[in-house]
Amino acid sequence: MKNYSIGMLSLAAVSACGTAYAQTEKEKTQLPNVIFIYADDLGYGDLECYGARNVSTPNVNRLAENGIRFTNGYASASTSTPSRYSLLTGEYAWRRNDTGIARGDAGMIIRPYQYTMADMFKSAGYATAAFGKWHLGLGEKTGKQDWNAPLAASLGDLGFDYHYIMAATADRVPCVFIENGVVANYDPESPIYVSYEKNFEGEPTGKQNPELLYNLKPSHGHDQSIVNGISRIGYMKGGGKALWKDENIADSITAHAVEYIRNHRDERFFMYFATNDIHVPRFPHERFRGKNKMGLRGEAIMQFDWSVGQLLDVLDELGLTENTLIILSSDNGPVVDDGYQDRAVELLNGHSPAGDLRGGKYSTFEGGTRVPVIVHWPAYIKKPQVSDVLISQIDWLASLAALTGARIPQGSAYDSYDRLGNLLGTDSTDRPWVIEHAANNTLSVRTTKWKYIEPNDDKRTILKATNTELGNADVPQLYDMTVVGERENVAEKYPEKVFELERILRQVRNRTIKMK
Ligand code: NG6
Ligand code: CA
After folding, report:
1. Which residues neighbour ligand 2 (ion) by CB within 5 Å?
2. For 453-472, how does the pLDDT look when each residue is reduced to its tens digit (9 = 90+)?
3. How many CB atoms lie within 10 A of CB 510?
4. What is the distance in angstroms between the CA of the first residue and the CA of the last residue of the chain?
5. Is the Cβ–Cβ distance between 362 and 339 less than 8 Å?
6. Which of 106, 253, 331, 481 is most buried, with most CB under 10 Å away?
7. Same domain, 438 and 411
8. pTM: predicted TM-score of the whole model, two decimal places
9. How far apart are CA 287 and CA 79, in angstroms?
10. Which residue out of 78, 134, 233 has the highest number of ligand 1 atoms within 8 Å of its CB and is therefore the one to mutate?
């Protein structure tokens, strides 16, 4: 039996499985606001509090110094769409075959009937909102959206009361914000057309008109439609005054989030704050330019930290800091050259984006999925700590449902377990296993001591364009996780371990295992 006490209050503790529910009205009134600060491609080593030396992140440090900083926290996947799908549904993305990196005109991947993180909070009486990068599709069908009318399906169908988002990523068209299912700041003089098949007649592309790329040029891919002097993935026409300017994206997302907090100061709210930073194209606001010796990538980290600071400041100002639970993390590991000539590689200056982990974004290796995780809730977490407990974003839905008292419908959030005690620092029992999902759909199983990577047929050991070690092999790999860096494959030495972890993976796949 566990007790979650918040200030004067002790949340009713329930049952042998350690689930805590906010049961009474009084308890419910003490529930915190919840904010996810979800960075894009921010690596394990990219924050000062995780050892970064070339860039300071004072606002994130503030959270770490007064909260819990996790050293074994995992995103579910090493790319964005599957990671976000898993976080928001509590179901592994690899259970479906349509959750890979989404196009900008993908149909909405989470279906309206699915239960989501936002549904959970809404059912517990929270106001719910999403800001920033979405990348989980919009509308009914891929390629069939009418961007000049309300979208046929959007986040309102997934439990979010309000959203101000980018459809996909900054490197994919359409380059406009979507507010509550319609293009924000829509310009009727300039209707929007999008295609991932072919260009629109007379429209320039990065490939054919490199002279028009006055802001950033691609290093690989990203040579289709040009918006704001930067070429993107996909073709678009129109947009007019609705088109974003990359240098203002962080300001725009943050301003909307800050305004939301102000307007909902008297309500309990859940906010999914998904920054565009530090994804490519990295093109931060002028005020960060020249401020970091790593150039644009370092400046994008500074801009991320600035956004965090804006949220913290408004919470302070409104007296909401104490009872707001903030969870800061990233959707996948780092990449340096992800397709634009932003000089990120040459200006690293000794910085290790993945810390001492091997691999990065796209990999099966740790750099792909082990990410910063910081939890901050002054009313509850009184003793700051660094925790090495094994946790995964897949569990956040069930864990926060345990906090709020929301009941998850049977069969929903199937892969998500209540590990609230881990997140709040009261339970240091490791998750018995964590599943990591690489870009090529290879799965790995991490336990406290071991990591098993299943064999695959992908011949690439390095993703050349990004210079990322992928960790592929056609034989089983087993690494001793007490040794940093996944260097020595000891599968042949410990066949019984390989067998044990293979079995866990098989059972998780088949849904024949339940975590104790
Ligand atoms: C890749 C893009 C990369 C990035 C990634 C998705 C090319 C050559 N590369 O296909 O730039 O957009 O998709 O990143 O197009 S994620 O973080 O959203 O998953
Ligand atoms: Ca990402």
Report:
1. 40-41, 80, 331-332
2. 999 999 999 999 999 999 99
3. 8
4. 15
5. no
6. 331
7. no
8. 0.96
9. 29
10. 233
